[in-house]
Amino acid sequence: MTASDVIIIGGGINGCSVAFFLAQAGLKVTLVERDFIASGPTGRSSAIIRQHYSNEVTARMALRSLRIWQNFADVVGGDAGFVQTGILLGASEEQLPALKANIEMQKRVGIDTRFLTPEEVREVEPAASVEGLAGAAYEPEAGHADPAAAAMAFAEGARSAGATLMLNTRATGLQAAGGKITGVETDRGSLSAGAVVIAAGPWTPYLTRTIGLDLPITASRHEVAAYRRPPTFTRHMIFADFTLDFYLRPETGGLMLVGSIEDVDDQVDPDNYDERIAFDTIAAFAERVTRRYPAMENGESAGGWASLYDITPDWHHIMGALPGVDGLYCVAGGSGHGFKLAPAVGEMMRDLIVHGPSPEADINLFSFERFSQNRLITGQYEQSIVG
Ligand SMILES: Cc1cc2nc3c(=O)[nH]c(=O)nc-3n(C[C@H](O)[C@H](O)[C@H](O)COP(=O)(O)OP(=O)(O)OC[C@H]3O[C@@H](n4cnc5c(N)ncnc54)[C@H](O)[C@@H]3O)c2cc1C
Question: Is any ligand 1 atom within 6 A of the Cβ of residue 336?
Fold first, then answer.
């Protein structure tokens, strides 16, 4: 038995961020990952970092996280591959009132964002067609990261602060006695700890079920297509298109990554699903991309992949203490938008575990109990959740 203050299950971006902030606070941390760091959905994330959210708490979390992404080497150490590109979020006439209300709320919390008319969109992004757009939200500070590098840097930062990383180690169950967590069963033996954080993405409910707790998290398959841009098309922003229901972002090597923002929840078995992109998806995304960026008529497919969103009923995290067993915590259910928020999530989990619960804490919004207490997290603008 190895004793830790906290065991974290899962080496995705959230597990690694929580491990970093807890180890930095002086706790003895062990991170258990069944495979390697970022081997799950984190490693296949589009890793878009924007602040366009429709409720204040997530908008503030996105802003706080952005400051860490921008200053990653100083705060965490290493390189998360953050590239500032700016983002445009294009909307139809019907979607404008909610988009504008969101922008006003985001400005109040300190986010650098503004509304652009179609003419102004043309000025900041000449390569984009404004067909079908009544306007757009513009965030010049948005960008994207390298998701595997970011998780690795958090993990390395945790290790430098004293954490133990146990890779190729699968948690097989939770141990509790007298209503309190005592440790984790793994395929390499038992580990004892005073607290356990499950950050196992779509596999999280499988672990909580070992102590009879059912979390409403499903695994849903989502595809990302890559296209090679024509050599003359060298630069573009991130574009989230609420009218055509897709997003795109630049990628190194002259590539563009494209995904859908339709809130589809195609439930799959997280250990048995098709990780390839379908040919039909490549064709369908290409059609939308060329409508928004006509230069892509001369682009080429460069393949793609599918991975998993861990979805909750309101598409927001379940984060904080779980009921029934003292010392058991969870961070999961990022529902396709959880990468960017991971730095704030790490800090919030550190504050909860180190200082205990507080009635004012933002983290309370994400409690598991919200589903039975009818306190679902909703925003004005349904399309606000984009990768
Ligand atoms: C295609 C795609 C595009 C996305 N685009 C964006 C985006 O642009 N912006 C954004 O903010 N978010 C985006 N997301 C969402 C974001 O990537 C996820 O919310 C985030 O990466 C989830 O990280 P995580 O650490 O919670 O979980 P995961 O990445 O799922 O990691 C969980 C880890 O737990 C490990 N594990 C599971 N079971 C066990 C066990 N029993 N024992 C030990 N280890 C275990 C797994 O191996 C895995 O490494 C996207 C997601 C996908 C799939």
Answer: yes
Looking at 3.50.50.60, 3.30.43.10, 3.30.70.20, 1.10.10.10, the CATH number of the domain 2-46+148-217+314-384 comes to 3.50.50.60
Cβ(10) – ligand 1 distance below 6 Å: yes
Report how far residue 21's alpha carbon sits from residue 107's, in angstroms, rounded to the nearest whole number. 28
Task: Give the mutation target among 7, 21, 42 for probing the ligand 1 site: most ligand atoms within 8 A of CB.
Answer: 42
What's at 241, amino acid-wise?
Answer: D
What would be the CATH architecture of the domain defined by 85-140+219-311?
2-Layer Sandwich (3.30)
Q: What is the pTM of this model?
A: 0.98
pLDDT in tens, 73-95: 999 999 999 999 999 999 999 99
Q: Whose CA is nearest to atom 41 of ligand 1?
A: 171
